[in-house]
Automatic annotation (TrEMBL):
GO terms for molecular function: DNA binding. Residues 15-66 form the DNA-binding protein Rv2175c wHTH domain. Keywords: DNA-binding. It comes from Kineococcus gynurae. This is Rv2175c family DNA-binding protein. It comes from the Bacteria. Residues 74-127 form the Rv2175c C-terminal domain. Pfam families: Rv2175c_C, Rv2175c_wHTH.
Length: 129
């Protein structure tokens, strides 16, 4: 049951990430989080944030929901680590975080924003089996 879900998510990530909604460029994310550009690039390098290249010019884009005025969304880094352990690409991880899940209810990213990391990570861990 998990394998078809994984394939469905991979297809969504490869085809379209429109469910994400708002995206930020690195300079926009830096402004929102009140950080220098180099700090945002460091967050990307350390995988506290993830991004994909989008659009005609392939601009590095970060989902706006990942960024808060205080910095990266709380609990995002650990969840991204769990998804990476399940061999998700950055695009697949983003797609999964924004895919509605009736058992949460809502999306995993909304659950993280509501400080429900345990529920989200439990589901993310199940994807690797």
């Amino acid at each position: 049951m998990v394998a078809p879900l994984r394939a469905e998510i991979a297809g969504e990530a490869g085809d379209d990430l429109e469910q994400v909604g708002e995206w930020l460029t690195v300079p926009d994310a830096a402004e929102l989080m009140n950080l220098p550009l180099r700090a945002v690039r460091q967050l990307l390098q350390e995988r506290q944030l993830v991004a994909v290249r989008r659009g005609e010019r392939k601009v590095v884009s970060i989902p706006a929901a990942f960024c808060t005025p205080e910095g990266p969304l709380n609990h995002l880094r650990g969840t991204l680590s769990v998804l990476a352990d399940s061999r998700f690409t950055d695009a697949e991880a983003i797609a999964w975080l924004f895919t509605p899940d009736d058992t949460l209810p809502g999306t995993p990213i909304a659950a993280l924003a509501a400080n429900r990391k345990t529920e989200v990570r439990r589901r993310a861990q199940a994807l690797s089996f």
